[in-house]
Amino acid sequence: MIPETGARPAAHGRDEAPTADEWLLEVEASASLPALVLFPHAGAGAAAYWRLASQLRDLVRPLIVRLPGRESRSAEPCFTDVRPLVRALAPVLRPRLGSTYLLYGHSMGALIAFETARLLSLGCAMHPRRLIVSAMEAPQDNPTGHERHTLTDQALWHAVGEMGGVPPEIAADRSMRQMLLPTLRADFELTDTYAFRAMPLLSCPISAYAGDRDAELPPDAMTGWGANTRGTFDHTVVPGGHFFNLDGRSGFADALREHLTGQGGSRVTQTPEPRGGGK
Q1: Residue 99: which CATH number?
Q2: φ, ψ at 210 (rounded to 5°)
Q3: Half-sphere exposure (Cβ direction) of 107: Cα atoms closer than 13 Å
């Protein structure tokens, strides 16, 4: 059963909760393929991951999560807490997963993917074949002192620009800034206020990717992800900054394809000891 406690009410007086078509952008692929659910980074819509997902459609059936507060859901309030978010998403996601599925999340999306894996595994006995994460420290290592969501508009916009998350032409557009800032602020609140809870470990393998020039996160900061599974863990470093996953020059898509075909995981770090994660 999916827990309903803390579920988010229908947005702006709607009588019905958002449908699967609103939550998920599906890339056309064979129905016989395993599903790959993609969780975008802070501030991003599903469309930002269309190109990456399309490169994988011969191997998987991509489902890109479209969060409230962006694209066709711009009128809906954003979530600022990951757990009500995954409780709202899970009932929509479950019927679309099929018998085999994988989860992939980048930066903020990695936290959402992790909590989704926990809910589906522990609450529904639906275990992912693999959890893939990039550009995010392990949940138990998530800094508690971040206050990015409380910055002034100017300071927050500058911080996002420093991460490389906003193209120069958009960064200079005042109207775009005013449109994007509320979503960015809400997404940063979700990650800034995230508190890890010790629960039984996942059973699926976890694959972690890092950019060798990511100023936000040194590559070795991701090794803690291995403490969250009883399965195997591998850690791959690719060329690029924080958004290497959407940079065609980084080789990330090719590395991801290797994992999807069972050939990845050659660069393995030692799995850290679990930190109170249960059994």
Answers
A1: 3.40.50.1820
A2: -135, 150
A3: 25
Q: How far apart are CA 102 and CA 104, in angstroms?
A: 7
Burial of 75 (0-12, 13-18, 19+ CB in 10 A): exposed
Contact of 135 with 211, CB cutoff 8 Å: yes
Per the structure block, which two tokens stand in for 140? 């138990």
Task: Tell me, yes or no, whether 207 lies in a domain.
Answer: yes
In a domain, 191, yes or no: no
H or E, element range at 265: none
Domain membership flag for residue 56: yes
Residue range of the domain that includes 251: 19-142+196-260
Nearest to 278 by CA among 195, 194, 197: 197
Q: Please state the separation of Cα 170 from the chain's center in Å.
A: 23
CA distance 89 to 251: 30
What are the structure tokens assigned to 132, written together? 């893939």
In a domain, 114, yes or no: yes
Regarding beta strands 24-26 and 61-65, do their DSSP bridges make them parallel or antiparallel, or are they unpaired? antiparallel
pTM for this one?
A: 0.87
pLDDT digits (tens, 9 = 90+) for 177-188: 888 999 999 999
Sign of CA dihedral 42, 45, 51, 56: positive
- 3 state DSSP class of 200: coil
Q: What is the pLDDT of residues 76-94, one digit of tens each?
A: 999 999 999 999 999 999 9
Work out how many domains the chain is built from and give that number: 1
